[in-house]
Amino acid sequence: DDDDNDNNSDNDDDDNDKDAADGEKQEEEADTVSSELFKTKLSNLPRFCNVQDLRKALRKLELMPVKVKKNKAWLHAYITWANEEARTHAMRVLQGHTFRGKELDICKADPSVDAVEGRRVEDFVSRAQESISKLENSGLTPSEQLANKVTPLASLPYERQLTRKKADMQKNLRKLMRKFTKDQILPWLKEARLKNEGMPCELADTVPSPRINFYRNKVEFTVGTSIDGQPKTVGFLLGSYLEGLITVHSAQDCVHVSEDAKAIGAAFQEYIRSSPMEGYDRLHRTGYWRQLLVRTTETGDSLAVAQIHPQQLTAAELEELQGNMRTHFEQKKAEGLHLGSLLLQADDSRSGAKETSPTVIFGRNYVMERMLGMQFRVSHNAFFQVNVPAAEVLLTLVQDYFREDDNCIALDICCGTGTIGCVLAKAAKKVIGVDIVEEAVLDARHNASINGIQNAEFLAGPAETVMPTRLQELEAQPGENKTTVIGVVDPPRGGLHPKVVAAIRTCSALDKLVYVSCNIVGAAQNIVDLCRPRSKRLKGEPFQLHRAVPVDLFPHTDHCELVLFFTRAVSLPPDTQK
């Protein structure tokens, strides 16, 4: 959920918050470079056609676009192709083609002024100079400017940070009420709104993090030029690429980054500055060194993944580079650097997010983490909470909820690598984890195995098909005590897929639900759909939201987790079911 976007701080997800809030723009981009020169406009699309539907239809026609852009309110889409030949061929295939009963129309479209790719170099340079000038004239040191960006609350006493985060949650929960239409507000919700100052439920005080400094166990350092012109600086961006800022400042003064991560970043900077290979230039797409991902752990294990653009490097040159890096970092380890594994990832995409498998220079491609007395294998690119002590507080809160019923089954929906499921195995009679990603399910099974957990099973497949079948098999036999089924979800920032919400509603065996949200704005529609009356799409009985607990996993930033506790409305007293 928090985990982790460009520029390596919790504050970098603000744009994602906005996208999740208005929910209008849908866009997918291929990794290949697009100049927007070979663009088309595809019109007369059917209603309720999203980007994924359109891409699937194009694949069936053996058409491979570079980029598809569509607002869900549009009946048209903009599609970019790799070259003129590909565009011409696509126009021949798509013109007059019938898609879901609609005859499509296609024409050429003018290139857009794209914030990253389409702007002229001179325009970008002009904006960059203006942005740097503002930084230089701000009266703040580069470290202070960076702190304002990545840890904007660091100047406040911690108690005030907690108070502010509760106030932010109050505001967002009040806004959530506006998403319910008049006919969707059930009697219990009207009563809760009056009782809780306009909120749909009781809101607890923010639970503090046991560790407020140096807590982040995963960071992604960018390689760039410092504000004083020093190339191949390893740190965080002082602004956004959209603003023309590709200036980087060291993270050495950042209060949320672990000391081991800072030391590894410094050792990497020392190496690349001694290397003849230049840093990667995002504007001109030249150079090599792009970024450094660092994972540190409570166990002392650590891992670093250096990412380069390979340009025209041969296999022999890459092998030589790996040997040089091994020599440098083994020397640093001998001098006291804590680094268990070093990997090199060659990524020739424009975004640096191609997910190519890295080469292990030494060590392995995962770290072993410890949480609540259990061990977890965390791959270099896997999601894991970035603040383990605070995550232990959050998981204990969830675990205690399950301990209230000694005959309950925990349903870990979208379980990922099984962290929550493994923790709940101590409190629940049985744990069932479901995830559509088979690799994640394999990791979950491994984590259960190494912790000696025998009352958990992890199943691969869509939650909406796996859950009802498996729960039906577990229904209590005549004469047995009824088994309470409690679901738990910890979705990414955008919330759960509507099909998963519909499956939760439909699954009559599910009595209670715990929803761990890292972005209440992104979760808002999920909450409405869980609590609104029955409809053609949402056929099961609604849930009642009765408590929300903020847990501060990200001290010094604006972000905070929110644990939401739901009970199936059908199990409430009769006067609340009207």
Average pLDDT for all residues: 85
SS content category: alpha+beta
* Oligomeric state, counting identical vs distinct chains: single chain
Largest sheet: 8 strands, mixed
Query: Helical residue percent?
Result: 25-40%
Principal-axis shape: globular
Compute the CA-based radius of gyration. 25 Å
Number of helices: 15
Uncertain regions: pLDDT < 50 for 5+ in a row?
1-35, 113-119, 571-578
Order of strands, main sheet, comes to 8-23-24-22-21-18-19-20
Total DSSP E strands:
24
**Estimated share of beta-strand residues:** 15-25%
Taking the alpha carbons of the first and last residues, their distance comes to 36 Å
Supply the key terms:
alpha+beta; 15 helices; 7-stranded mixed β-sheet; globular; about 20% strand; 8-stranded mixed β-sheet; about 575 residues; disordered C terminus
Structure description:
The chain is of the alpha+beta class and 578 residues long. The longest helix has 20 residues, at 158-177. α1 runs parallel beside α15 (520-531). The strands form five sheets. An eight-stranded mixed sheet has the order 8-23-24-22-21-18-19-20, sandwiched between helices. The protein is 32% helix and 22% strand.
